[in-house]
Design goal:
Length: about 100
């Protein structure tokens, strides 16, 4: 295979669907890296004695959940999240049941 054929094959690969996909993935990775590096990661070191602050996952009994990860994610909607999970689980069980009954026909 001559050099001209190799260059022509490389050009066809770049213009083809695989090359466009590789270019798109590279562009997406570059944009994610730039957006991640542009965030000002100012840690409140003075508030935590010069070390990174530890954020509790769940509140201690008798304390408000505002400063925890679970409280920030769910807040007053904890019951709604539980009910949504229950409905989704029931739908999944029903879907499996329907799939099994169609398989037997």
């Amino acid at each position: 295979m001559s050099l001209r054929d190799r260059v022509r094959a490389a050009g066809a690969w770049i213009v083809g669907p695989r090359g466009v996909m590789a270019l798109g993935v590279s562009l997406l990775f570059f944009l994610m890296a730039v957006s991640f590096l542009n965030i000002p990661w100012n840690l409140p070191a003075a508030e935590c004695g010069g070390e990174p602050c530890e954020i509790p996952v769940y509140p201690d009994p008798g304390t408000p959940p505002e400063g925890t990860i679970g409280g920030s994610l769910f807040g007053p909607y904890a019951t709604l999240v539980f009910l949504s999970a229950l409905v989704l689980a029931a739908c999944m069980i029903g879907g499996v049941y329907l799939a099994k009954t169609e398989e037997g026909e």
